[in-house]
Design brief:
By secondary structure, the chain is of the alpha/beta class. The protein folds into two domains: 2-192, inorganic pyrophosphatase (n-terminal core); 197-321, Diaminopimelate Epimerase, Chain A, domain 1 (Roll), CATH 3.10.310.30. Helices cover 38% and strands 18% of the residues. It has 13 helices and twelve strands. The protein has helices at residues 2-10, 24-38, 93-96, 127-137, 144-157, 168-179, 184-191, 197-208, 225-231, 242-246, 262-268, 284-289, 308-318; strands at residues 13-18, 43-47, 65-66, 77-81, 101-106, 117-120, 211-212, 218-223, 253-259, 272-278, 294-295, 299-304. The strands form two sheets. A six-stranded parallel β-sheet has the order 3-2-1-4-5-6. A six-stranded mixed β-sheet has the order 7-8-9-10-12-11. The radius of gyration is 19 Å and the shape is globular. The protein binds guanosine-5'-monophosphate and manganese (II) ion (MN). Residues 25, 82, 107, 126-127, 157 line the site of manganese (II) ion.
Length: 322
Amino acid sequence: MHNIINHLKKSNNILLTTHSHPDGDAIGSLLGLGLALEQLKIKVSLYNESALPIVYQFLPSIHRIKKDAGNIGDYDTVIILDCSDLHRIGAICESVIKIPVMINIDHHSTNTRFGEFQIIDPVASSTSELVYRLIKEMDIPINVGIAYALYTGIMADTGSFRFSNTTPASFEISHEMVKHGADPHKVAHHVYETISLNRIKLLTMLFDTIEVSENGKLSIMTLTQQMLSASGTLIEDVNGLINYAKRIENVKLAVLLYERKASLRRKSGSEFHVSLRSDGTVNAAALAMGFGGGGHHNAAGFDIRATLPELKKIVFDFSKHL
Ligand code: 5GP
Ligand code: MN
């Protein structure tokens, strides 16, 4: 950690980024660290390839995260947050390698350990928790923007302090963030309690797609582009859908098959993103790694080029191992 701190104190212009289709932890860690480094009078640019989910638009300074990375040649350092491998940041991965120093901050056990400097701890609840440790080591004061960002990141990645990655540290840091001005009711209101009518319509369509394997241990939900357009929702408006499939009794592994937009299908060569959620008895990250993806023991994902019937056959085969 000290090498990283020494380096950061010498840096003048830093690009910070995180994985495309960001979740609460990706956004929280990006915003939290960006706002903190800025207090050291370092110039920072925050970048994400995707549109940000509506539910996180309430975060103070969220507008600082841009879809334009600026001029890559201007940066002396790039910080990659919450990415188990560099490709997760999207198309920009090819140009950021030209930035002289790369720092990798992540909590995925499948992290490929890219970059000159790394802060990797798979036991940490979230990347936001690692950002908190760094900010503390650097003696940077926590302002209300940082407090909201890190609280939201930890809350999102622990499933509101319900998942097995919830530790005393998750509560201790959250406690401190609340003391610094993060309002838990406000965060929960925006992230969980506000659902558009269109999203409810999408849910009814999605529930109709649920299939369960013969032994009852595997559930599959399918989300197509046609369903998004018919319900008038955007993919960045929906999150946590897979949790419905995971709550079904006796299910050990829940799977969401998400059909990519036609434009992205051409660009990335993958037709589907597959999300996996385990009840803990099966290692979802190991299954995902078998298809070039990664993640955590209980939550993982991968991209695949296949037709829907081919993909369903592959996924139903997972049930034999459950
Ligand atoms: P989700 O299912 O929400 O997309 O992702 C669940 C977890 O798996 C997250 O921690 C995410 O970072 C990881 N993950 C999802 N898709 C991929 C992928 O294609 N590659 C890798 N390495 N990790 C992924
Ligand atoms: Mn995370």
